[in-house]
Amino acid sequence: MTALPGVPLSHLLDEVGSTLLTFAGSSAHDPLVTGIAIHDPAEPGSAAHPPGALVLGVGVADAEQATALLAALGRAGAAGLVLRAQVPAGLDDAVAASGVPVLVAAAVPWSQLVLLLRAVIDPARAGARPPGRPLGDLFALSNTVAAALGGAVTIEDRASRVLAFSGNQAVADAARVATVLGRQVPAEWRDRLTAAGVFDRLYSSGEPIDVVLPVPGLHPRAAVAVRAGEEILGSIWATTDGPLDADRSRTLVSAARTAALHILEERAVESAGRRRRAELTARLLDGEPGDPAAETAADTARRLGLPEGPFVVAAARLDGGPDLAADRQAGLQRTADALGMHLATVSPGAVTTVLDDTAYAVLALPPGTLRVPGAVRRTLHRLADRRDPPIAIGVSRPVGRPARLAVARADADAVLAVPPDRGRVADVTDVWAQVVLAQVPVPARLRDYFRTGPLAEVARYDAEHHTPLLESLRTYLESFGDVVGAATRLHVHPNTLRYRLRRIRELTGLDLDDPDARLAVGLQLRLTATTAEPPPDDPHEE
Predict the structure, then answer these.
(1) Can you give the residue ranges of the PucR C-terminal helix-turn-helix domain (predicted)?
(2) What residues have CB less than 8 Å from 59, skipping those under 6 apart?
(3) Which of 483, 432, 463, 441 is nearest to 530 (CA)?
(4) Phi, psi of 488 (to 5 degrees)
(5) From CA 431, how far away is CA 112, in angstroms rounded?
(6) Residue 197: what pLDDT?
(7) In degrees, to the nearest 5, what angle opens at C-alpha 117 toward C-alphas 114 and 120?
(8) 5, 9, 217, 512: which is deepest, by most CB within 10 A?
(9) Which parts of 204-290 are beta strand (E)?
């Protein structure tokens, strides 16, 4: 067995899917799977397995063999045992004693199962497939089926998108040609098939079905569902000269099983690749600002395929939404995926990740760019407007090199800490003043002073008499002493505001004509967000 980087067993099951592997008996811990091993009782020497191995129990057919194997795997520190669908009864005690989880595999060849599991365990496997050639083996499969059936073949996913097609489409009809050219079954044909009940028959049958629609020039078809357990992955369609005989039906059923394995493999490979890219992106964003290891950051950026820069970071957080941590994490991951999809149109190669309670995207800008381009801002606004639950997005200043991306992340986080009043998306230039004030440190002793003095008295008076003096003072200062402008914002007569300001002076002795007094109370209002709650009698009381 070759040692691989390893993933938790629970994560491996999430990636592969419950249709392929399920728990039959599990232990309390979540072991790290570092490799795949084969155990075949008929093969001498196959019982020695290193720690962390997920062992495929080839040929394990009865409870006695399974119990003995579990005991040996427990002593070896194996991560789990995979058995076929017919699990011997009475293994609960053996699982508990060994601490080795038992999993049940769907009816797929062991060799294919090894391939799928390795693709998840070893992220480097995700890069083995040449770019731009997803599901390449499906094209060979479609040509093989077409040769056996004598018709044109397409392999489609559940949404009727074309994954592969045979090379003899010249024998196809107009509907098939439109499907292949558009890589999608046209909406009008999908509606016809749905109305005729074809998809209902297709997905409820384990055998090929004949499809004949009363449309001139439309060839008869045979179709079979592509399944992994109970999950529908897609379908195979072939034009025919009439109903299939038994041999051709078996060919189509066998092809569906093979197609399912290719699709599952691609799903695992893509998932592993996506996870690896997210880990590399997180590494860039997690660096210490000013980290001298610029070469390391640059190397990580090259591995992600990012250009030289400049870069910006967009940070998105859920505004409300689910309370459960797992549901929020799922929502953040969907947000990260949406960020990547939308930004790809304005910044090809944008990468995303989730850190803590925030989804991040790193995107490259055209050389020499000093501000976030309008196309990026418009794209983010469209995304924010469409999300449910809503999201808020903060965008950093551009930074020139990968080593500065941690600084850009801090920028984006700072913007999110002071959401703008005029929308759900802002960059640093939109909320510059608020960001600066939020970064001003206020020593604890100075905060004690802020909890006393004139504003504390005004806050206490407002709380006791239900008056708006503090709000009036804040608006007056924000209006630079313009009584008329402040009164308009407060929706009161200027004389009413003048009365409130005199009342504040009578209560506290605060002289708003004194520039030092105006500065002090302005800082107090800005930096401590004074509320209408009265402060404690003792300013040093905790």
Answers:
(1) 469-527
(2) 40, 41, 42
(3) 463
(4) -60, -45
(5) 54
(6) 92
(7) 150
(8) 9
(9) 209-211, 221-228, 231-239
Query: What does the alpha-carbon distance between residue 316 and residue 412 come to, in Å, rounded to a whole number?
Result: 9
Q: Report pLDDT for 132.
A: 37
Is the CATH number 3.30.70.1230 carried by domain 300-437? yes
Give the integer Cα–Cα distance in Å for 338 and 317.
13
Distance in angstroms (rounded) separating the CA atoms of residues 87 and 67: 11
Q: What is the mean pLDDT of each run of 10 residues along the chain (542 residues)?
A: 64 68 72 83 62 85 85 89 77 86 76 70 48 57 86 88 77 75 82 90 91 83 87 89 87 88 76 78 75 67 84 88 68 84 81 89 86 86 80 89 90 82 74 73 64 78 90 89 91 92 89 84 69 41 41
Residue 406: how many other CB atoms lie within 10 Å: 20
C-alpha distances out from residue 166 to 28, 35, 139, 247, Å: 49, 37, 6, 20
Backbone φ and ψ for 473, nearest 5 degrees, come out as -65, -45
**461-468: long-range pairs with CB below 8 Å, 24+:** 461/507, 462/532, 463/532, 463/533, 463/534, 464/534, 467/500, 468/500
Q: What is the pLDDT of residue 30?
A: 80
The CB-based long-range contact list for 131-138 (8 Å cut-off, 24+ gap) reads 134/266, 134/270, 135/163, 135/164, 135/262, 135/263, 135/266, 137/262, 138/163, 138/164, 138/259, 138/262, 138/263
Question: Rounded to whole angstroms, how far apart are CA atoms 79 and 35?
Answer: 9
298: closest CA among 289, 307, 290? 307
d(Cα 80, Cα 487) in Å, to the nearest integer?
72
Q: What is the pLDDT of residue 374?
A: 86
What's the rounded Cα separation, in Å, for the pair 232 and 254? 16
Q: Which residues make Cβ contacts (< 8 Å) with residue 75, sequence separation at least 6?
A: none
For 208-235, letters b (16+ CB in 10 Å) and e give: bbebeeeeeebbbbbbbbbbbbeebbbb
- pLDDT of 48 reads 67
Tell me whether domains 7-121 and 136-265 share a fold. no
Check residue 495 and give its pLDDT: 93
Q: How far apart are the C-alpha atoms of 205 and 189, rounded to whole Å? A: 21
How deeply is 78 buried, as exposed, middle or buried, from its count of CB atoms within 10 A (0-12, 13-18, 19+)? buried
Identify the architecture of domain 136-265 in CATH.
2-Layer Sandwich (3.30)
Tokens linked to 326: 């797992």
Cα separation, 236 vs 165, whole angstroms: 10
Instruction: Report how far apart, in Å, the C-alpha atoms of 400 and of each of 259, 293, 296, 365 are.
Output: 46, 15, 15, 10
pLDDT at 366: 85
Q: Whole-angstrom Cα distance, residue 284 to residue 300?
A: 7
Question: Is the CATH number 3.40.1390.20 carried by domain 7-121?
Answer: yes
